[in-house]
Amino acid sequence: MKINKVPLRSCVVTKEKLPKKELIRVVRNKDGNVNIDFTGKANGRGAYLKKEIEVVRKAKISKILDRVLEVKVSDKLFEELEKYIEEN
Q1: What is the pLDDT of residues 58-86, one digit of tens each?
Q2: Per the confidence metrics, is the pTM higher than 0.85?
Q3: Superfamily classification of domain 8-87
Q4: What's the CA gap between 79 and 53, in Å, rounded?
């Protein structure tokens, strides 16, 4: 019987390796726009965050997404991330 591998990704804040489904992907496209990637397959430079509000707040304070995505991330995106986590 074949065993399927579970894709693991690292959270940029906590550095934990977790299954891809337990993380949120934030992506910067070639135009420099930053969005939440709900599909996990959007083109562009991506960064993963653990699905916890505390982690999103730490990312905002430390500006780690700015460094990883190499662009200024707006406060509106962090609000969208928190709203998404609360709903799911």
Answers
A1: 999 999 999 999 999 999 999 999 999 99
A2: yes
A3: YlxR-like (3.30.1230.10)
A4: 10
